[in-house]
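User: Okay, second chain of the day. Same drill as before: sequence in, structure tokens out.
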Amino acid sequence: MSDNLQNDHVIIESPKPVDTTLPMVIYALYLASIVTGGLTALVGVVIAYVYQGKGPEWLDRHYRYQIRTFWIGLLYFCVSGVLMFVLIGFVLWLVAVVWLVIRCVKGFKGLQEKRSPDNLETWLV
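Assistant: Same drill. Structure tokens below.
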């Protein structure tokens, strides 16, 4: 009879906690790209492409947000680089840096709150 009682107990495993270390590293790589000339951002976007689709939906949205941040940022920085010959590019480069910092901070905050980033499809912040 004791065997039957042991079989009636069901062990419920708690859901595995989601590791947000890698997306945080990607945001940090994006921030470091300001001083490395974009090299670390390239590493970050490769990581985002590799790990996209391998986690819960809210985490996958972060990877998508990071991929979009890379490509939109590349466009913004290239345009500002071309316009540096007209001197307005220096101001646009500074605006692009502020844009990148804001997007990374918003991403960090979303990761800490275990939710997807706000305004996933926007080109702004």
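The chain is about 70% helix and 0% strand.

User: Thanks, on to the next one.
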